[in-house]
């Protein structure tokens, strides 16, 4: 069956053109005008923007963490992603201690396979960096996995030392793979945590003190130095600190192959959200936590001057009240103290419309830059371009028909994420994904869900990673 999307303005990272799209066999067959319509599904997109589906390069669906498991699985998370205009994401498979990286990837492929409703791929998190693990890295390409993550935080859980960090970077680079890093100093966090708890400081706001701007910036500065030392490319995830951004900027000005990601929550939320009466602040506990107004400003600057290349979510939702029937334990695990609150926030459904609203409607970035940050750059950096990340002949027909005038008030009452709160509760955005297609199949039509579990495909990624 062929589909024609007509009369819309097609927006890519490069241009905005009033043209029609012919879709056949799940891919874009032609772009142009006056396609014969006989026997085709017709989507009239007059007055709408047609953009490539969002790609969220950083998510944690169905992830065991913080004494529980994130509350969205590969079906609920995918349905929410689709409603929010995201048609593909890259999740983190975890290596278990004593196990191979390949086993981690295969476990996560099994978690996703029968549930997936949009397309997905995996990075692998290196948590047990023995010599065997390091030697195994190049073989992951056979699994379609070409990026690895190390954590410099979460001491005693995921944290690796500098030897492991450097060995991973070197080995990955040898085979054209990309290392990613969670850059906060886990040792410093552990010392600060002990100090705070010994002083009886258990309120939610102390999470921000233990995970301070300086603690993030130190690790980012170290990570950028490691790029200089090794020459290996590095992608720094979820950057929230102004000084961290400055370190990336300086590294890039020297010509180092370092790239930076920020997340949608850091564009809108500050540490004040953690400093609220009672337990409310727990909703915003993630690592790194949102920082000050000046850091937010630095993030916007980093996005506009190309210091940062992507906006992801780090979607890792936990119920605010996980004690209710049918729920996994959630934020309430930390009622007694901030350090026991599972780290992570929801956002997979909100990223696309919130960023459009905050960035494009306000004139901070153009619609083309929006597409670049939300879709094209993640596809390029992670070896999925031009199959994903653009609207071009031969690309997968992953498409958002976006109504730039539709107003929508974001709320946990109406969102599709499997979590009982929304970071942007009550925010009315202008601009909303009206129809969402993955490989030519209409998954979302207004409020209607037409997707199904098992439709989503694993994206086998290339090693080719553009340094953007
Ligand atoms: O708080 C966060 N970010 N949770 C998810 C795990 C991670 O650090 O990315
Ligand atoms: Zn992280
Ligand atoms: Zn994460």
Helix content: 25-40%
Largest sheet: 8 strands, parallel
Radius of gyration: 21 Å
- Regions with little confidence, pLDDT below 50 for 5+ residues: none
Output mean pLDDT. Answer: 98
Number of helices: 12
CATH architecture of the domain at 57-370: Alpha-Beta Barrel
Q: How would you describe the overall organization of this protein?
A:
The chain is an alpha/beta fold and 468 residues long. The protein has a domain at 57-370: Metal-dependent hydrolases (TIM Barrel). Helix content is 28%, strand content 23%. The chain has twelve helices and 21 strands. The chain has helices spanning 76-83, 101-113, 131-136, 162-174, 186-198, 206-210, 213-230, 242-253, 264-268, 293-304, 351-360, 367-381; strands at residues 2-6, 9-11, 16-18, 20-24, 27-32, 40-44, 49-52, 54-59, 64-65, 68-69, 86-94, 119-125, 147-151, 178-182, 234-236, 258-263, 310-312, 399-409, 428-438, 441-445, 448-449. The strands form four sheets. The chain has an eight-stranded parallel sheet with strand order 8-11-12-13-14-15-16-17. Helix 3 links the parallel strand 12 and strand 13 (147-151). Helix 7 (213-230) packs parallel to helix 8 (242-253) and helix 8 (242-253) runs parallel beside helix 10 (293-304). The longest helix has 18 residues, at 213-230. It is globular. It starts with a strand and ends in a 19-residue tail after the last strand. The model has no long low-confidence stretch (mean pLDDT 98). Bound molecules: N-(aminocarbonyl)-beta-alanine (URP) and zinc ion (2 copies).
Q: Keywords for this structure?
A:
single chain; 468 residues; alpha/beta; TIM Barrel; eight-stranded parallel beta sheet; seven-stranded mixed beta sheet; 12 helices; 23% strand; globular; binds N-(aminocarbonyl)-beta-alanine; binds zinc ion
């Amino acid at each position: 069956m062929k589909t024609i999307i007509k009369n819309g303005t097609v927006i890519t990272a490069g241009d905005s053109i009033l043209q029609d799209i012919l879709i056949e066999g799940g891919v874009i067959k032609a772009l142009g005008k006056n396609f014969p319509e006989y026997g085709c599904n017709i989507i009239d997109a007059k007055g709408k923007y047609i953009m490539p589906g969002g790609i969220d390069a950083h998510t944690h669906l169905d992830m065991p963490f913080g004494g529980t498991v994130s509350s969205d699985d590969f079906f609920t998370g995918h349905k929410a992603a689709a409603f929010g205009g995201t048609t593909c994401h890259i999740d983190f498979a975890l290596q278990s201690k004593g196990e191979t990286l390949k086993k981690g990837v295969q476990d996560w492929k099994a978690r996703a396979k029968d549930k997936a409703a949009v397309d997905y791929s995996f990075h692998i998190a290196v948590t047990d960096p023995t010599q065997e693990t390091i030697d195994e890295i190049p073989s992951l390409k056979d699994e379609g996995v070409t990026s690895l993550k190390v954590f410099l935080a979460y001491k005693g859980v995921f944290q690796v030392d500098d030897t492991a960090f450097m060995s991973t970077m070197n080995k990955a680079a040898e085979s054209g793979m990309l290392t990613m890093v969670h850059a906060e100093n886990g040792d410093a966090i552990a010392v600060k945590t002990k100090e705070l708890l010994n002083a009886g400081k258990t309120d939610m706001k102390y999470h921000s003190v233990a995970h301070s701007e300086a603690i993030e910036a130190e690790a980012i500065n170290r990570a950028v130095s490691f790029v200089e030392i090794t020459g290996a490319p590095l992608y720094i995830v979820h950057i929230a600190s102004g000084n961290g951004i400055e370190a990336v900027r300086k590294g890039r000005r020297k010509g180092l192959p370092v790239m930076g990601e920020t997340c949608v929550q850091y564009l809108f939320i500050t540490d004040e959200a953690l400093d609220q009466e009672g337990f409310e602040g727990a909703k915003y506990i993630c690592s790194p936590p949102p920082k000050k107004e000046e850091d937010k400003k630095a993030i916007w600057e980093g996005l506009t001057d190309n210091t940062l290349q992507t906006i992801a979510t780090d979607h890792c939702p936990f119920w605010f009240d996980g004690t209710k029937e049918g729920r996994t334990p959630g934020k309430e695990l930390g009622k007694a103290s901030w350090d026991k609150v599972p780290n992570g926030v929801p956002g997979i459904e909100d990223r696309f419309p919130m960023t459009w609203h905050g960035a494009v409607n306000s004139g901070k970035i153009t619609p083309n830059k929006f597409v670049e940050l939300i879709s094209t750059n993640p596809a390029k950096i992670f070896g999925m371009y031009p199959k994903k990340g653009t609207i071009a002949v031969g690309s997968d027909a992953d498409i958002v028909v976006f109504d730039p005038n539709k107003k929508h008030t974001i709320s946990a009452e109406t969102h599709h994420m499997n979590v009982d709160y929304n970071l942007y509760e009550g925010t009315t955005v202008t601009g909303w994904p009206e129809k969402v297609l993955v490989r030519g199949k209409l998954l979302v039509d207004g409020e209607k869900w037409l997707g199904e579990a098992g439709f989503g495909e694993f994206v086998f990624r290339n090693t080719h990673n553009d340094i953007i």
